[in-house]
Amino acid sequence: RNWHCFTCQKSYNRKADLIRHIKLHAGNRPFSCNYCHKRYTAQYSVSRHQR
Description:
By secondary structure, this protein is α+β, with helices and mostly antiparallel strands. It has a single domain, classed as Classic Zinc Finger (Double Stranded RNA Binding Domain, 2-Layer Sandwich). Helix content is 39%, strand content 16%. The strands form 2 sheets. It has a two-stranded antiparallel sheet with strand order 1-2. Strands 3-4 form a two-stranded antiparallel ribbon. The longest helix has 12 residues. It is elongated and about 35 Å long. It starts with a strand and ends with a helix.
């Protein structure tokens, strides 16, 4: 695993996954469910939640 989070030491195979993870530490969750308003870091997470 080549990409490491300096905050919690988690590691990821893809840089995009690390960037998504870092948003969790920053509290950046711009996507929300239209039904329950739970917030997510990525749109695909909202879609998965709504299935």
